[in-house]
Amino acid sequence: MEKGLVSIITPCYNGEKTIARLFDSILNQTYKKIEYIFVNDGSTDRTEEIVENYKDQFATKGIMFKYFYQNNKGLGGAIDTGLKHFTGEFLCWPDADDYLESNSIEERVNVLKANPEYAIVTSDAFVRDYNDLYAYKSFISNGKKHLSEKKQFKNLLDEDGIFCTGCHMVRSNAFLEVNPKRSIYPARRGQNWQMLLPIYYKFDAYFLNKPLYNYIDYPSSMSKNQDCLDSYLLRFNEHREILLNTLDMIEKVQKVDLSNYEIFIEKKYAFLKMHVSLKYFDYKNFDKEFKIKKIYGIEKRDIIALLRRYIKPLNHLYLRLK
Questions:
Q1: pLDDT digits (tens, 9 = 90+) for 155-201
Q2: Buried b / exposed e across 58-90, counting CB within 10 Å, b at 16+?
Q3: What pLDDT sits at residue 220?
Q4: Is the CB of residue 207 less than 8 Å from the CB of residue 122?
Q5: Residue 59, helix vs strand vs coil
Q6: What is the DSSP string of 162-227?
Q7: How far is CA 157 from CA 112, 115, 197, in A?
Q8: Angle at CA 229, nearest 5°, toward 226 and 234?
Q9: Are 59 and 65 in contact (CB under 8 A)?
């Protein structure tokens, strides 16, 4: 790893409308020692043309630019490709449709240099609407209760952490210690769990309470495109598989027993699928997931869900009040 060098990996699929903004934000960083790895994940639009137009600008700024094209594998598969090629002391992985504040890299490098006991620093971020980038709607930290805690592993599993990709910077030596194969599961989403959980399990995390990244809220974003039971179930099953795969990797590399966390995940997703089945009045699927939940242990919230399942007016009232 080259001392002082920051490696930035960006996965991209059909980013012609957004990547120029991200590229400009990298070119305008106050911290200049950057290696930028851009993985074109089988784009069918003008992404490659725009990349070609920016290569000279990166060179002029002294930024090492590495470009890779591959057949479409999804965000996880694209990051997996980039991980094979980074050489910096520090590592970031912003999305192609967001962008960095100009001091984003410098501020986080300074934190890690001043606090050698931390392996990762996570900043806050502005949440901006795609129709109006000049104003921000909120902060990505809103509603998160435990960001200042050094131990973030359980918080992330509880989805009480920051998932926003461009908020994180990790020490490369720490990352390689917990991920020596430089590899993550090639899923189409959920890449941040895979990148962060192994780090969070072993090392302390630093929360930098400054908005150094800009998360753009798009109406057609993948995470929001779920308007039916099947879409929810697909997403939950994908996330469950990713988490179990990641825990398995942590167990093998770090030589630990995470069976309690595996049970936690099974209980969590069985309940989520029970809950969404009630939302769409699919009581047959509810019964299927409830049988799974019984294997891992019934909780108070399961009894409430069971009442909703058998007292249909109660379920209707619950959904209307929600």
A1: 999 989 998 999 999 999 999 999 999 998 877 777 889 999 999 99
A2: beeeebbbbebeeeebbbbbbbbbbbeebebbb
A3: 62
A4: yes
A5: helix
A6: ---GGGEEEEHHHHHHH-TT------SS-HHHHHHHHHHHHS-EEEEEEEEEEEEE-TT-GGG---
A7: 24, 25, 8
A8: 70
A9: yes
163 φ/ψ angles, rounded to the nearest 5 degrees: -90, -15
DSSP 123: E
Nearest to 94 by CA among 212, 241, 246, 225: 212
Q: What is the pLDDT of residues 256-286, one digit of tens each?
A: 999 999 999 999 999 999 999 999 999 999 9
Every domain range in the chain assigned CATH 3.90.550.10: 2-223
SS3 84: coil
Rg for the chain, CA atoms, rounded? 21
User: What region, left, alpha or beta, does residue 33 occupy, with left being phi > 0 and alpha being psi -120 to 50 degrees?
Assistant: beta
Tokens coding 65: 């630019």
Q: Are residues 85 and 37 in contact, defined by beta-carbon separation less than 8 angstroms?
A: yes
Q: Which of 187, 140, 197 is nearest to 166 (CA)?
A: 140
Cα distance between residue 4 and residue 10, in whole Å = 19
Q: What is the CATH number of domain 2-223?
A: 3.90.550.10
Q: DSSP 3-state assignment of 259?
A: helix
Q: Give the residue from 300, 234, 243 showing the smallest Cα distance to 266.
A: 243
